[in-house]
């Protein structure tokens, strides 16, 4: 596993999930990857965020679109891999690529590999939150947790990378550990799913992160975003949702040819794992 040096700089060695990681991912449905990105990349990502235009809802910026999930979630720029090289580096970042391959990449099968369902750059200021959703009870197969016969077969795993410190009052992601395998509905989740902040939902805990940390979780885990009560600053994160290569994107975003052409083969394979099959030109 990659480690931080005494200078605080993160090693570029590929992190591999350990037996302890597997245990806690299976048990809780999430892992915290400390110091996932180094200071240099963190600075470049924040500099890119500083350049985002003040878009209206559904307005496009190049091949990225502002598409907030609801009126509480803040500024959410979708298709963020189109927003510059720092975002491209996150596609197969060494701190988590082996984790998502293991947990949702159909390892040891004839369809082994990954794709990215969504890539989002998110800014939340005071007041915003994201209602609770997902859970094992009647959950969609798209995000379901599954382990059998020695392999993980998760439908989707998410990486939320913190670009700013996210502590009390900063609107941290909240999770209900173990809920990815729940067989019963949460008896008090109804109001929270309809829009109430999940801060007081029984069983929900905040996931605090330092800038550069990431949280990995199976999408079937009950999760959401707590209220951001701090009056200054903002919560900045990127959200990359990984799934098996045979899946298709939720919202149908396409990548520009200029992006696909400049990517490394490995990154292009994740964004476009199944290339279009067309007859030869006459």
Describe this structure in words.
There is one protein chain. The protein is an alpha+beta fold. It has a single domain (19-271), classed as q2cbj1_9rhob like domain (Jelly Rolls), CATH 2.60.120. It is built from seven helices and 14 strands. Strands 1-12-9-14-5-4-3-2 form an eight-stranded antiparallel β-sheet. It starts with 18 loop residues before the first helix and ends in an 11-residue tail after the last helix. Mean pLDDT is 91; it is low at 1-11.
Which helices and strands occur, and which strands form pairs?
Layout: H1 19-28, E1 30-33, H2 39-50, E2 60-61, E3 64-66, E4 75-78, H3 85-89, H4 97-104, E5 114-124, E6 130-133, E7 147-148, E8 151-152, E9 157-162, E10 173-175, H5 189-193, E11 205-207, E12 214-218, E13 223-225, E14 235-244, H6 257-262, H7 265-271
Antiparallel strand pairs: 1-12, 2-3, 3-4, 4-5, 5-14, 6-13, 7-8, 9-12, 9-14, 10-11, 10-13
